[in-house]
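dumping this here so i dont lose it
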């Protein structure tokens, strides 16, 4: 009586792993690609599945339906990947929402040194905030800013000047009332 594929895998037989991959690798990959809608993620999931299979090979001696077991592993791996993808998307959405106002303009640069300056920039009118960002973060000249936003260089310079003045006032230390 010969040993089963599960027994050979459990003992760490490399040829058994190669045979299993040859037999199921393409099917696992195709299923993962369909579930994830991504070739590269499917490749990663199948690779990770075989790495996990090798790590926990001692459990395979008790597996009666090896194909079913691998597709169950695949399903769990895909679910974990989709959960991570969803969490990453929600985190990115939350970060973008926190950094953009209703018009889609940045409310604060991630490089602002303190919360007070961040709030002061966020309180500027959108047009002034836009010019400020293009001048400071973008390093554009007033002529370049004017071309980007469709106004005159004088208007761009005025908006910048008004923004700086509002920031200066907002950030001035205020005396406590007596």
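and the seq i came up w/
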């Amino acid at each position: 009586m010969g040993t089963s594929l599960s027994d050979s895998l459990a003992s760490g037989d490399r040829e058994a792993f190669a045979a299993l991959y040859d037999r199921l690798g393409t099917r696992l990959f195709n299923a993962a690609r369909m579930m994830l809608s991504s070739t590269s993620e499917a490749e990663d999931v199948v690779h990770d599945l075989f790495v996990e299979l090798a790590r926990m090979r001692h459990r395979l001696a008790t597996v009666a339906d090896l194909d079913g077991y691998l597709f169950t592993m695949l399903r769990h791996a895909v679910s974990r990947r989709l959960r991570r993808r969803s969490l990453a998307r929600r985190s990115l959405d939350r970060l973008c929402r926190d950094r953009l106002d209703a018009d889609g303009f940045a409310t604060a640069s991630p490089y602002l040194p303190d919360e007070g300056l961040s709030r002061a920039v966020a309180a500027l009118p959108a047009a002034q905030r836009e010019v400020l960002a293009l001048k400071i973060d973008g390093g554009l000249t007033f002529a370049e800013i004017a071309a980007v936003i469709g106004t005159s260089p004088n208007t761009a310079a005025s908006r910048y000047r008004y923004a700086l003045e509002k920031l200066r006032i907002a950030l001035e230390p205020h005396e406590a009332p007596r």
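Helices lie at 5-10, 14-36, 39-55, 66-99, 115-123, 126-136, 142-149, 153-171.
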